[in-house]
């Protein structure tokens, strides 16, 4: 299906034939929207929509693939909003239709979502997340580096752990942290749900949401 079918203004500047598959497969040619916008603008849906509508593809959509590292989340979110009956964002759909209905907390050393002080403290308390060497380096802030340049936002931080709320937390992003052992257990659920639940001693169960989908 062409995106312009349900989002007419998206068709500007040679984007009329861009399909949903092109967007999901990184073939839309919209790795950049052109004009710069700040971190504070990340949750301004109307602004983001306008930037996408006025964006000019860097190649003929569908003919090449290029990783949409910084634009993918915005593109998918705006497409989903226009297809969802209540115009919900990806984060709203996840909270209302997935997290509350189908998520079971697993006893793993991990924290889903953009890191928070509470989640990080919990993971540290469970042991095994970071080494003693990394723990010591937390008190050694670094200077400006590649991340600051990409985000166009200077912030005080240590070796991978921010000392203030990360600016991208304000947008619709999905991140998390874990150790290798727990991450392996987590992904096992996708290939062998019954085996994982049995191994955890939780009893195998399908949620109402899972049965319906």
UniProtKB/TrEMBL annotation:
Pfam families in the record: Beta-lactamase (PF00144)
Membrane spanning residue stretches: none
Top-level taxon of the source organism: Eukaryota
Record-linked PANTHER family: BETA-LACTAMASE-RELATED, BETA-LACTAMASE-RELATED DOMAIN-CONTAINING PROTEIN
Source species: Strongylus vulgaris (Blood worm)
Name of protein: Beta-lactamase-related domain-containing protein
Domain spans labelled Beta-lactamase-related: 3-100
InterPro entries reported for this sequence: Beta-lactam-related (IPR001466), Beta-lactam/transpept-like (IPR012338), Beta-lactamase/esterase (IPR052907)
């Amino acid at each position: 299906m062409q995106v312009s079918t349900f989002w007419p203004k998206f068709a500007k500047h040679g984007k009329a034939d861009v399909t949903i598959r092109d967007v999901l497969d990184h073939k839309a040619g919209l790795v950049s929207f052109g004009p710069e916008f700040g971190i504070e603008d990340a949750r301004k849906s109307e602004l983001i929509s306008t930037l996408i509508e006025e964006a000019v593809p860097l190649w003929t959509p569908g003919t090449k693939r290029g990783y949409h590292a910084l634009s993918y989340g915005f593109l998918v979110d705006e497409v989903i909003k226009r297809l969802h009956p209540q115009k919900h964002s990806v984060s709203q759909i996840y909270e209302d239709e997935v997290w509350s209905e189908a998520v079971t907390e697993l006893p793993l050393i991990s924290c889903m979502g953009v890191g928070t002080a509470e989640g990080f403290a919990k993971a540290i308390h469970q042991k095994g997340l970071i080494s003693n060497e990394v723990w010591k380096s937390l008190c050694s802030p670094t200077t400006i580096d590649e991340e600051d340049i990409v985000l166009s936002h200077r912030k005080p931080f240590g070796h991978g752990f921010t000392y203030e709320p990360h600016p991208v937390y304000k947008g619709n992003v999905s991140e998390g942290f874990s150790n290798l052992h727990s991450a392996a257990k987590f992904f096992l659920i996708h290939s062998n749900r019954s085996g994982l639940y049995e191994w955890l001693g939780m009893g195998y169960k399908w949620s109402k949401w899972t049965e319906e989908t």
